[in-house]
Structure of prolyl oligopeptidase:
Amino acid sequence: MKKILTMVIAAGILIACNDDDKKTEATALNYPETKKVDTITDYFGTKVKDPYRWLEDDRSEETENWVEAENKVTFNYLDNIPYRDKLKKRLTKLWDYEKLSAPFTEGDYIYFFKNDGLQNQSVMYRKKGEDGDAEIFLDPNKFSEDGTTSLGGLSFSKDGTKFAYAISEGGSDWRKVIVMNAENNEILGDTIKDVKFSGMSWKGNDGFYYSSYDKPDGSELSAKTDQHKLYYHKLGTAQSEDKVIFGESADQKHRYVGGGVTEDDRYLTISARNSTSGGKLFLMDLTKKNPELVTILDNEDTDTYVLKNEGSKLFIVTNLDAPNKRVVSVDASNPTPDNWEDFIPETENVLSPSTGGGYFFAEYMVDAISKVKQYDAQGKMIREVELPGIGSAGGFGAKEEEEVLYYSFTNYVTPGTIYKYDIKEGTSEVYNKPNIDFNPENYESKQVFYNSKDGTKVPMIITYKKGTELNGKNPTILYGYGGFNISLTPGFSTAMSVWLEQGGVYAVPNLRGGGEYGKKWHDAGTKLKKQNVFDDFIAAAEYLIENNYTSSDYLAIRGGSNGGLLVGATMTQRPDLMKVALPAVGVMDMLRYHTFTAGAGWAYDYGTAEDNKEMFNYLFEYSPVHNVKEGVEYPATMVTTGDHDDRVVPAHSFKFAAELQEKHAGNEPVLIRIETKAGHGAGKPTSMIIDEYADIFGFTLYNMGFETLPSEANKKVKG
């Protein structure tokens, strides 16, 4: 029987009373009782204690009671922030504007999404032609009473008469796929259950391909899943009859398998990966009765996929011998790399290509800013697309026969605007501009470059109200990610506009580990180079302080998922640097992350503690859960997570919060806010998002010492 240690943790903090009281008084913040279990794992001769491993059991009554107790402490604290309701009201008012998606054509209809303002989920509409009357096609708000069941993907059959859509319940990555007759909205008896990490790709009107895992033993929200399979579902048949196309045999075992049918229904392309970077690529000719699996790439050294085809000619996007990506062409009869020819060669900027109307659109990132070039079918550049300004453009895609496409443009002070683009003429016009109670003219964004610890130059965009005095006293949120080849490009956030209204500064650096400068930039923040990411983030904070945008007393750091790891590592390495830390759905236990759900697929970025002693030591050195030190004063911290997060399981956040509450020496609060019936973030209802941001901004400002909102009065120090 393992020895169980139990302890009660208490710390004194200051909580402000209501504004009328004109004073603050101290109140004891008693954290919930969190037992400690004598669990030890031996890694290459190093014995590592894991006293809170019992919190990994998301199905246990003990864990459920702990979650309830922690939330009670957290929300009691948040209830005492005097301006929390004001923040919520302002967020609600600002959020309440009509939001439209870019339209797309399927069959005889034009489809689009619209949110009237505060609807929990956006509604899918359609109309016959531009001048037709819009009607509701699918309303996800009716999936559940509380808005926590969301639309998780959709796909139309070739002629647009059949429609498959996935739903996510409580934010889980496990989905149900429902099939509908698009002509009369009748649900067909083809519901597919237990689908995960999958799109739906139709073969004509007969059926579609999808991917999933066998349901794991144990908890479906945390048990490991590592053999993904590609299935074909034929309409009118039971799911039990669905044929496995790829992934059933031992030699085809991969963690992530996906399949997509080319627009002309001729080819099925199959990707097979064991990590989030690098994968194999295969092809099947669907015009043949018994198509064979043709290998394009049989290794996982590159990120490569088929963009489109013209007959038997394939156009492939790859970073093979091109870290910033290129487009190559090859005949499907012999599609291996030795036969590839450059179609759009690699440049010094990262390429993200798309197609539409018979043309190719090459979007390039130039210091994280969009530039778009248009090429014809022969690979000749026709024009550089004139964008509305400096920011992020996306959506340059359409079907081959389309004459127009719709793209979006945004930056940190410009709400996302949709433009209609004439593909042949190259002209743009505004299609939809949101009517929001926010004036971009009052704010500015500027890009700076700073040097990281090793001298690497890193870009950062800083946004704030015009006329802001650089006196070191501006409340500032530094947001980062730095991983998985993901690029942080400028984009408007309704929530962050409320922060800017309060005189807040919002800074976003493009850390190594991201994709802003291609594969080399990504690789420079992976495995034994992961510390570069934390150093880049720390250097960003130091730049903001040295240049008087803020100071340590007014700095908050924030990030989610891999960005939650970033915040956890930064605050444990440099607790003196910031006043507030806001790690969200973070990967906090770097020794065990790969044992949950599909976590082992992140090994390209992180490596695992089982790889070798060097990798274990490196991970152990920065793993947030294992680097909370006894007697250290940590910043005011609010960890956020969701109880249905099966991407980064909430145990990461649970264990980190428990370690902090046990060992933290200061008087700053250490809270964990656990959203119930919520997952990693996708599909979260509007009401839940607004509540969360009101709590985040309120917690941040209050712990920076603001008794009233900065926009209403001068700062007063709590005391």
Notes: The domain at 40-92+438-717 is CATH 3.40.50.1820 (Rossmann fold). The first strand starts at residue 4 and ends at 5. The radius of gyration is 26 Å.
